Amino acid sequence: MLNYKLDIQKQSLWYTNQNYDDMKSVPFLVVEAGEFFANPTFYTNRAGHSFFSMMYTVSGVGKLTYQNREYSLKKGSLVILNPQIPQSYASASSKTWQFTWLNFLSSYGDGFNKQLLEEPFRPIELEADNPVAKDLKQIVVNLEKPLKENDLINSALLDGIYMKLISRKIHREATPVNDSYSDRVLDFIHRHYNEDISIDDISQEANLSKFYLIKVFKDITGVTPYEYLISYRLFQAKKLLKSTDDSIDAISERVGYNNSSGFIRAFKKRFNITPDKYRNIRSQ
């Protein structure tokens, strides 16, 4: 069920993915996206949806009703909504509510649910200079052109947002008992991801048995420390591909791979695109 009043201003953007049926193998597939400048009578009520939704408030204030509670969506608020839960959102003042939004699919399944569809639910409050807002806007811009290459880039951008939010979640949700463990693991991975480290090295740093470390870390994040290490390496590789002219061999070494073929396989498996092609598209 869907009912709404699309009371938005002329400068609002709304794009749908023209390659939807051909791109379902990517980690994240953006199905539609936009940036709305919503007037006071704007609202959407939805029950039963096919896609995850992400909304980020750029300015103004919105109101979200979700899981029988109301939430104020102020500047910097980010929410990720479960498609199976009824949801309602609307402008909450006489001023324009400007927000960026995405509807998307994730191939991560239950792991994604564990990591980002938080229980109990609450909006994520991002700092003013957080790069997530810029990445979301870039996804909207990319979707304007119906190119499969842009779908691959959008998947990689959304994967980067996913990584940033996981890191925030680890810091925020760690309990006093495992706080020092999770912080120590993150710090160790962030300092040594470019070295040939193993789960044994990480468990030694945390002063925990390997099996208990995996349990504690996965309880918080939904992923193992080693899975986080691989994701962080690829996250750093994307930044280097965009910001440097270093060769693929050099980048693979800089992010902790012993050879470029292993790096290329991991990158393509994660993003469905080779590092070279990713670099070429991002430079256009």
UniProtKB/TrEMBL annotation:
Keyword ATP-binding annotated: no
GO MF term (any one): sequence-specific DNA binding
Keyword Transcription assigned: yes
Keywords recorded for this protein, A-Z: DNA-binding, Transcription, Transcription regulation
InterPro entries with a match to the protein in the record: AraC-bd, Homeodomain-like_sf, HTH-like, HTH_AraC, HTH_AraC-typ_CS, Tscrpt_reg_AraC-type_HTH
Limits of the HTH araC/xylS-type domain: 183-281
UniProt name for this protein: HTH-type transcriptional activator RhaS
